[in-house]
Automatic annotation (TrEMBL):
InterPro entries: Class-I_Pyr_Nuc-Dis_Oxidored, FAD/NAD-bd_sf, FAD/NAD-binding_dom, FAD/NAD-linked_Rdtase_dimer_sf, Pyr_nuc-diS_OxRdtase, Pyr_nucl-diS_OxRdtase_dimer. Keywords: FAD, Flavoprotein, NAD. This is NAD(P)/FAD-dependent oxidoreductase. Belongs to the class-I pyridine nucleotide-disulfide oxidoreductase family. The lineage of its organism: Bacteria, Bacillati, Actinomycetota, Actinomycetes, Micrococcales.
Length: 470
């Protein structure tokens, strides 16, 4: 069967990002067709953010209760792994996307299920179970196809039935032992989740743990993992991997062999552009060159957004890009936007370069917005850093023996914040104040008037500003 359907805008990929891009197009008065080959809602809903946080939260709630004298005595048991997995299943809607489909339809978006491929300018072929459909866009096609795991070329690994993050976040049982390859945010979070659920976990990283975060913050997470019984092999290469039908054997540089029931490979991700037909358009399939509205250089009808654009691989930032991209497509279609979008304007995802918030949801957490000292210096900024142990009345009330760390990176010429990091139990909710201060370029002398409530952990803001010299 072959048919041709015309719409204003085609969005390929119905993850959180594609859904938002299509919704903004509809809100702007154009029609949008969304194509999805798997579950509407994408990686975040079913195999990433939601299930991983659902696996972590019970462990951190238990740990919080144990961290306070009085409630500690009331906690006599351990985590109930089956209940944790059952609650995780609720958060993934049992991998059933009907409520998301309902939202898509209510929003006025046309959903087409199948695998999409670009076949020419504004033309997309969708392969479905009953054949193929050709979609034609009057204005634009947006690629919101997400990212795919990057698997390292380790001897013996290819072809083995190891876990990726999908299998780790959707597992039905807790393995007796788990080896985790990769010391990034996915590796750290899932190592802790499984250690607290009862697995004997070993984490192997060729570099430091969480190497893109400030070292004192990453060290606190490392101590947290060690406290949970995770064995760490950091700055250690992996030479080969084998599986004998029952156990994995991971051979490390230096001769150590790690044996485990399951092996999780979480060594980064790259834009999922394979098989989409971008090469035929003369484009580099590993990374597209896009402007701040997501428009692909040399192809004004084509956009990439979210993980597919490869700028910032985070749901909230992808959804922000989607709002800009959807609105930019509408504005260009109506002749209201010509040329590149204005920085910090309604069509440019400028915060991608200045004010990205990110949280490592381990216990303790790391919450970081903007740049680190290193990335700020690399970008040529004249910056200084102010850091301290996170120790205020709010933190000592929060948990006995609370251990945390905070840092602000200041542009000393403009006297504004360009980066803030907090590490410690339950610091994630402190982060939005930092994001606002950075994105708003709030001058430090004005931030001095933003008084943190007493006794909250936010009082660390006051201590940082005092130490800076205010
Ligand atoms: C373990 C893990 C935990 C994470 N935790 C967090 C977190 O706590 N917070 C956070 O902000 N981010 C987190 N992330 C990152 C987050 O999951 C991604 O940034 C987010 O899912 C990207 O959304 P997206 O819509 O761009 O892509 P996706 O969610 O991957 O959606 C892309 C969609 O496109 C579809 N698709 C692909 N190709 C085609 C095609 N040719 N035709 C039709 N459909 C197609 C796919 O099936 C998919 O549904 C985590 C990632 C991982 C791996
Ligand atoms: N809380 C969150 O927001 C959250 C949680 C999980 C994942 N994510 C997102 O998902 C993406 C993927 O997560 P990730 O942890 O897989 O990626 P990552 O880029 O954060 O970390 C990858 C890790 O794998 C290591 N690595 C790479 N190649 C290797 C090799 N050949 N051998 C051994 N180690 C190797 C790297 O050194 C790094 O430590 C991230 O970009 C992140 O933004 C976000």
């Amino acid at each position: 069967m072959s048919a041709e359907q015309t719409t204003d805008v085609i969005v390929i990929g119905a993850g959180a990002v594609g859904e938002n891009a299509a919704a903004r197009v509809i809100q702007g008065g154009l029609s949008a067709t969304l194509v999805e080959s798997e579950l509407v809602g994408g990686e975040c809903s079913y195999w990433a953010c939601m299930p991983s946080k659902a696996l972590l939260r019970p462990g951190s709630a238990l740990h919080s209760a144990r961290a306070v004298a009085g409630s500690r005595e009331a906690v006599t048991g351990t985590l109930d792994a089956q209940q944790v997995l059952a609650r995780r299943d609720e958060f993934t809607s049992h991998w059933d996307d009907s409520s998301q489909v309902e939202w898509v339809e209510k929003t006025g978006i046309t959903l087409v299920r199948g695998r999409a491929r670009l076949t020419g300018e504004r033309r997309v072929e969708v392969t479905t179970d009953d054949g193929a459909t050709t979609l034609v866009a009057r204005h634009a096609v947006a690629l919101a196809t997400g990212s795919a795991p990057t698997i390292p070329p380790i001897d013996g690994l290819d072809g083995l039935n190891f876990w990726g993050t999908r299998e780790a976040t959707s597992a039905k049982e807790v393995p007796e032992s788990l080896a985790v390859l990769g010391g990034g945010v996915a590796g750290a979070e899932l190592a802790q989740a499984y250690a607290r659920l009862g697995s004997a976990v070993t984490l192997i990283a060729r570099s430091a743990l969480l190497g893109s975060y400030p070292e004192p913050a990453a060290r606190l997470v490392q101590q947290g993992l060690e406290h949970d019984g995770v064995t760490l092999h950091l700055n250690t290469g992996t030479e080969s991997v084998a599986y004998d039908g029952e156990r994995f054997r991971v051979s490390l540089a230096g001769g150590t062999v790690v044996e485990s029931e399951k092996l999780l490979v979480s060594t980064g991700r790259h834009p999922a552009l394979a098989g989409l037909g971008v090469e035929e358009l003369g484009l580099e399939p590993r990374r597209l060159d896009t402007d701040d509205s997501g428009q692909v250089s040399g192809h004004p009808w084509l956009y990439a957004v979210g993980d597919a654009a490869g700028k910032v691989l985070l749901t909230h930032q992808g959804k922000y890009e989607a709002r800009m991209t959807g609105d930019a497509i509408v504005a260009r279609a109506k002749g209201e936007l010509q040329g590149p979008p204005e920085r910090w304007g309604p069509f440019a995802a400028t915060a991608d370069s200045y004010a990205v918030p990110q949280v490592v949801f381990t216990d303790p957490e790391i919450a970081m917005a903007g740049r680190t000292l290193e990335t700020a210096r690399k970008d040529g900024l004249n910056v200084s850093e102010t850091s301290l142990e996170l120790s205020v009345a709010g933190s000592s009330l929060h948990a006995d023996g609370y251990k945390g760390w905070a840092q602000m990176v200041v542009d000393d010429e403009r006297k504004v914040l360009v980066g803030v990091t907090f590490a410690g139990p339950d610091v994630a909710e402190l982060l939005h104040a930092a994001t606002i201060a950075i994105a708003g370029e709030v001058p430090l002398h004005r931030l001095w008037h933003a008084v943190p409530a007493y006794p909250t952990i936010s009082e660390v803001w006051l201590r940082l500003l005092e130490r800076y010299g205010l």
